[in-house]
Write a structure and sequence with these properties.
- This protein has 402 residues and is of the alpha/beta class.
- It has 13 helices and 10 strands.
- It has one domain: TIM Barrel (Alpha-Beta Barrel).
Length: 402
């Protein structure tokens, strides 16, 4: 994995704005051979274009914008995770009788519910606005049978498209995103009807996802594990857990993730977590300080974290007390998906310097809080990426006199 040796490198969290024609084609995909061929041709050309656009914007470590993950509307916060239900078997629609209430009975075990604690705290805000509260609809799938990976063809397509585009552009390092087991579980809000325990369910997910992880590595890419569920489930569990209860919950999911990563070199893995991409108050987010020790147990070399979102910007200070393990890299978000305000390059540089001063300049790569695609307007997204690269250049002048 590349490091910031003589300047601050730049990257991002994964999702980039999709072209309108690609979104439209995904929305009317019918499975007919002619339509499928047209989609594949459009994907190939779109991936080539998005790779070049990232180079032009000054991004060093880039990807395919997650274009192979269907996004059917300009605003879509879930494409990063919903894609997986087209690639694993064992899931189906949740029948109405299986939808549990969003308030657990006294003494019931913890479970993920549809209504977050933040939604309860800011009920008027979410009732009066359309700013993107997490869905409470019973539209999330449930596990109804054995889980297995069946997405080999789609994965081969995505990897081939990115390889061709990266080689044509002469890119040194490229990453591919894939969902972590714990976050896949978070997408399933109904009860599990097949596996007897949560542990068995998670292990089955991990065994299936290992196939995707290994294929990404074997294709020569860096694997990025997307796991907003690590901090985000804190606000989705009922009954509300204590911190210690939640850390036990999160540690189990990290252990399962590490099981899926067995045999994969850490220096080919980066781990992304955030506190969700909906534009809300985020006052009930769990602090990074409370779970940083859990995050650092993930067998990855680099950790991508929110740091531009004003609810979490101050958390760079924890690295004065928490030692980043030797050889590890931080990818702090220095531009945010949570606002349409475009960060000034000097602010971006200040954020980079704060992390460089805390953990060492060579241990920082400048990134984004979350994927920008589907969260902000495309014009805003590309302006933020240019601010990211301009800010990294300013920081590099101070850190390396570059």
């Amino acid at each position: 994995m590349r490091r910031s040796i003589d300047r601050t490198l730049t990257t991002h969290a994964g999702s980039l704005p999709r072209p309108a024609d690609l979104r439209e084609m995904w929305s009317r995909q019918t499975g007919r051979a002619k339509a499928e061929a047209a989609l594949q041709a459009l994907l190939r050309s779109a991936v080539g274009e998005i790779v070049l656009a990232q180079v032009k914007a000054g991004i060093d470590v880039l990807n395919d914008g997650e274009f192979g993950k269907p996004m059917r509307a300009a605003s879509d916060r879930g494409a990063w995770g919903n894609y997986i239900f087209g690639r694993v078997s064992g899931f189906g629609p949740t029948p109405p009788e299986a939808v549990a209430p969003d308030t657990a009975a006294p003494g019931a075990p913890m479970r993920i519910v549809g209504v977050r604690w933040e939604q309860r705290e800011f009920a008027e805000f979410y009732a009066d606005t359309a700013l993107g509260a997490p869905s409470t609809a019973a539209s999330r799938p449930m596990c109804t049978g054995p889980i297995a990976y069946v997405g080999h063809e789609a994965l081969r397509r995505d990897l081939a498209n990115l390889r061709a585009a990266a080689d044509a552009a002469g890119i040194e390092e490229v990453f591919v995103t894939s969902i972590a087991p714990g976050s896949l579980e978070m997408f399933c809000r109904a009860q599990n009807a097949h596996y007897p325990t949560a542990e068995a369910f998670l292990e089955a997910i991990a065994a299936a996802m290992r196939e995707e992880y290994r294929a990404i590595l074997e294709a020569g890419f860096v694997l990025q594990l997307d796991d907003p569920g690590l901090p985000d489930a804190w606000d989705m569990l009922d009954p509300r857990p204590s911190l210690e209860e939640y850390k036990r919950y999160a540690l189990l999911r990290v252990e399962v993730l590490n099981y899926a990563l067995a045999g994969i070199p850490e220096d080919r893995v980066r781990y992304h977590m955030c506190w969700g991409s909906w534009h809300g108050p985020h006052t009930t987010d769990i602090p990074l300080r409370d779970i940083v020790d859990v995050m650092l147990k993930v067998k990855a070399q680099a950790y991508s974290i929110e740091a531009g979102n004003v609810r979490h910007e101050h958390e760079y200070k924890i690295w004065r007390d928490v030692k980043l393990p030797a050889g590890k890299i931080l990818i702090p978000g220095v531009v945010s998906h949570a606002t349409n305000v475009v960060e000034h390059p000097e602010l971006v540089a200040d954020r980079i310097l704060a992390f460089a001063n805390a953990v060492g300049r060579e241990n920082v790569i400048a990134g984004t809080d979350c994927g920008l695609g589907g969260r902000v307007h495309p014009q805003i997204a590309w302006s933020k990426l240019r601010a990211l690269s301009e800010g990294a250049a300013l920081a590099s002048k101070k850190l390396w006199n570059a």
